[in-house]
From TrEMBL:
Keyword Hydrolase part of the UniProt annotation: no
GO molecular function: metallopeptidase activity
Family: Belongs to the peptidase M67A family.
Name assigned to this protein: Mov34/MPN/PAD-1 family protein
C-alpha cells in the first residue's frame, strides 16, 4: 500500500488557487442557494459497490459523483467506484488511484458529455480526518466539489445521504483552516428513473396489502420522522442556549420561519374551523363503524340461515336414504315369503 500517494494538495501542483475570502463567499452562496439531489441509480451503485468490496466489514468505499447543475439544484445522476484503501490503525495512511479516476471519467464523458465531476462519495458513516485531504484531490477537477456520505444501513425513514462542501474558515490567529459545511440534500428522480425503481420494487411489494393500510403506515412513518426532526431542533436549540455550540444564523432564521408558519391557536375562527373538521371526522368514523357493524350483522344472519338450510337438506337426504333402505329390505322379505309359499 502506498502511503498518502494521492493526497498531494492542489497548492503543491502549481495550479491556480481560490483565495480564502472568495472560497468562503462562493461556498456560502452554494450552501444558501443549492440543494444536492441524489438520484436512485447513484444509491444503487453505492450499495452495490459496498456489497462487492466491504460487506460485513468496518471498511468504507469511495467513488466519484457525476451529474449536472440545473435550476439551482445539483443533480447527482451517476457515479463510479474508485480503488481506495486505508489503514484502520493509522488514518493518515491511505491510497486513492487518481489515474483510474481520470481514465474512467474520460470513458464516461464519451457516453454522456453533459455529466461532469461534481465531487465524491463514501459510505462513512461519519466525516473522517482524512476526508479533507481526499476532498483536495477532487478540487483539481471542479472548483467546489460536493462530498456525499451515503448511509448503507439507514434507520427509520430518513434520507440516507449527507452532503458537505469545504471552505476556508478564518480563525482567531488570522489564519484560515479548511473545514466542511453541511448543505441540504434530498432524493430525486427523473420520470424514467421512477419507472425503473417501480419495476425493481414490484417484487418486494405485497399486492394483497390494502391501500388503506399502506396509506396509514405511510402517515405513521411520516409522523415518526417529523417527531425525530422536532427532537433534533429542540436538542440544537438547547445546545445553542447552553453555549455548547455556536448557533448558525442560517439555521436560526430557518427555525424562525418555521415558527412564523405555525397557526395562531388562539384565533376564534381557527378554533371553530378545527372543531368543525374534528366533528366531521368523528361523524365519518361513527357512520363507518355503524355501517361496518350492520354489514357484519347481516353477514352473520345470512351465515346462520345458510347453515340451517344446509343442515336441513342434509337431514332430509339422510331420511330419504333411510326410507329407501327400509323399502328395499321390505321388498326382499316379500320375495322370500312368496318363494317359500310356492315351495
Amino acid at each position: 500500500m502506498s502511503e498518502n500517494s494521492s493526497k498531494t494538495a492542489a497548492a503543491a501542483s502549481g495550479e491556480p488557487q481560490l483565495d480564502s475570502l472568495s472560497s468562503f463567499a462562493s461556498v456560502a452562496g452554494l450552501v444558501a442557494s443549492k440543494t444536492v439531489v441524489v438520484h436512485p441509480i447513484v444509491l444503487l451503485s453505492v450499495v452495490d459497490h459496498y456489497n462487492r468490496v466491504a460487506r460485513g466489514t468496518s471498511r468504507r468505499v469511495v467513488g466519484t459523483l457525476l451529474g449536472e447543475i440545473s435550476d439551482g439544484e445539483i443533480h447527482v445522476t451517476n457515479s463510479f467506484a474508485l480503488p481506495f484503501e486505508e489503514d484502520p490503525k493509522d488514518p493518515n495512511v491511505w491510497y486513492l488511484d487518481r489515474n483510474y479516476h481520470e481514465h474512467l471519467y474520460h470513458m464516461f464523458k464519451k457516453v454522456n458529455t453533459r455529466e461532469r465531476v461534481l465531487g465524491w462519495y463514501s459510505t462513512g458513516p461519519q466525516v473522517r480526518m482524512t476526508d479533507l485531504e481526499i476532498h483536495e484531490i477532487f478540487r483539481r477537477y471542479t472548483p467546489n466539489p460536493v462530498y456525499v456520505i451515503v448511509d448503507i444501513n439507514p434507520k427509520d425513514s430518513v434520507v440516507p445521504t449527507k452532503a458537505y462542501y469545504s471552505f476556508e474558515q478564518p480563525t482567531s490567529d488570522r489564519t484560515f483552516r479548511r473545514t466542511f459545511v453541511h448543505v441540504a440534500s434530498t432524493i430525486g428522480a427523473l420520470e424514467a428513473e421512477e419507472v425503473g425503481v417501480e419495476h425493481l420494487l414490484r417484487d418486494l411489494k405485497n399486492a394483497s396489502t390494502s391501500t388503506l393500510a399502506t396509506r396509514v403506515a405511510d402517515k405513521l412513518s411520516a409522523l415518526k420522522l417529523l417527531i425525530g426532526k422536532i427532537q433534533e431542533i429542540y436538542a440544537y436549540l438547547q445546545d445553542a442556549a447552553n453555549k455548547k455550540i455556536v448557533a448558525n444564523p442560517n439555521i436560526m432564521y430557518t427555525i424562525q420561519d418555521i415558527f412564523n408558519l405555525l397557526p395562531d391557536l388562539s384565533d376564534p375562527e381557527l378554533i371553530e374551523a378545527f372543531t368543525i373538521q374534528a366533528n366531521d371526522t368523528m361523524l365519518n368514523l361513527y357512520l363507518g363503524s355503524v355501517v361496518r357493524s350492520v354489514l357484519a350483522l347481516h353477514n352473520l344472519i345470512n351465515n346462520k340461515v345458510e347453515n340451517k338450510r344446509a343442515s336441513e337438506e342434509k337431514k332430509e337426504k339422510k331420511e330419504d336414504e333411510e326410507t329407501g333402505e327400509t323399502k328395499k329390505e321390505a321388498g326382499t322379505d316379500t320375495k322370500k315369503g312368496e318363494k317359500e309359499s310356492s315351495q
